[in-house]
Amino acid sequence: MKNQWIVFLFGRVTVKVTGRGIERFLNVLTRNGILIWNVKRHGANTITFKIKLQDAMKIRHFARKSECRISFLRRSGMPFLLKRMFKNSGFLIGAGMFLVIVFLLSNVIWGIEIKGAKPATEYQIRQELDKMGVKIGKLQFFVDNEEGIQRKLTNNIGALTWVGVELKGTTYHLQVVEKNEPKKQKKLSPRNLVAKKKAIIVRMDIDDGQKKVDVNDFVEPGQLLVSGEIGQEGQKPRLVAAKGEVWGEIWYKSHVELPMKTTFSVYNGKEKRKYSLLFGKLEIPVWGFGKHGFKDYKTEINIHKLHFLKWELPISYVDRTIRESREAVRTYTVKEAEESAIEEARKEIKKKIDEEAIIKDEKILHRDIKNGKVILDIHFKIIENIAVGQPITKEIHE
Amino acid sequence: MAKNWVGRVRSWMAKNMDLPQDVMMDLPRITMIGQIHVYIENHRGLLTFTDKELRLLLKQGQLLIKGKSFVIKTILPEEILLEGKIDQVTYINDDKPGGEK
Known about the structure:
The structure holds 2 protein chains of 2 kinds.
Chain A (H helix, E strand, L loop, with lengths): L3 H7 L1 E8 L2 H10 L4 E6 L4 E7 L3 H10 L2 E9 L1 H10 L1 H18 L4 E5 L3 H14 L13 H11 L3 E9 L2 E8 L12 E5 L3 E10 L1 E2 L6 E2 L4 E4 L1 E2 L7 E2 L3 E17 L1 E19 L2 E6 L9 E12 L2 E21 L2 H19 L5 E13 L2 E13 L1 E5 L2 H4 L1
Parallel strand pairs in A: 5-7
Antiparallel strand pairs in A: 1-3, 1-4, 2-3, 6-7, 8-12, 8-22, 9-11, 9-15, 10-12, 13-14, 15-21, 16-17, 16-19, 18-19, 20-21
Chain B lengths: L1 H15 L4 H5 L3 E5 L3 E5 L4 E4 L3 E5 L4 E14 L3 E14 L9
Antiparallel strand pairs in B: 1-2, 2-6, 3-4, 4-5, 5-6
């Protein structure tokens, strides 16, 4: 029997037969292996039926011998559908173009929003973004990904402490934290000043409050320095917010080890870029074929997700930068090693203390060279503001 | 006489060897699905086809099917599938020519 779909694929024709001896003609056709279906009679000497497109030519040959006349009425099926599609190919091209345009527009940067920055910084950020190529109207897959933008912005703009870059749809949202945000002058509640570290007091500048310790006193952490309770003796004390700076000398000890010989890997400037498309897990290279031939190298991978309207497609555009690296050896003399070890120790200390603290003195307590390493124990004398506010609560007061 | 003898052997074989009669004796096999379909195997050609009548040639005699709005769904050299509303199926024998019509 015939298969409906295969017949559809190869095309079918409706045939109209008129004349005498139609039944005989049908018998001839069936005996010659022509598949006939949907035979219908219309009136006394007309019938219609369907045959396969391949049989349409053979049927003429049999018709000539019979007393009937045949004509073809309707053509349907794949071959005719295709023919029509080619005729109306404009529509098809239009539909394709539409999809392509929507796809491209979905991957264009349509906005950059910067939050939390002062106008000056915002301007700077916008210029920096322009330099990187992050502009309104650019395609997303030709710019760095979020982490890259984030890194470059933090590196290149000094005024930024941190910037969060997030791509939401077609808009980049930048959340900025600036280094010197204007301090809010808040109304202080009554408080005492207490020591935050163990120190010897060297200087006291007190604006408000009752001094409880003196210069050259040794204080423990948490000890009361300036009291917020003021007033004449015997009278009911008044509560104020104690204000002022208490500078104490603090001793720090730090231990530094620094190898005299260090190996680094540095880039020598040679690089190769490769581009590919990622379909799920299947990666198809698009540009940049061949081996890079580098012995030591690092690969930086940048994956751009492609979007269609608001949906993320399972296709990504990947660009790889392979940089050749070279090993570099840095060798210090003992003196140089010592100097940089001290420098390192200073940096280490500075991280622990306030910005306005001063290093008053540093002394090397112990120096050793072991296994190609310089080992130093350094003693730092630091003058730092040790006062820290502690609110006076009812419980403490009573 | 000889033909009759062959016929008798065939009938005997069909009866005693459990073989289907239509294969052994070249008879048509007619399958009907309610009133709407008739499926006839082993016919010998189309004689008449209108939307109310279908006449088929058999090895012996003819088969006449009457009804309404007939459409031949498929026709093959020895098979035919008819669709429509079937009212009657009649055999017409050779020895009574034109008995039914």
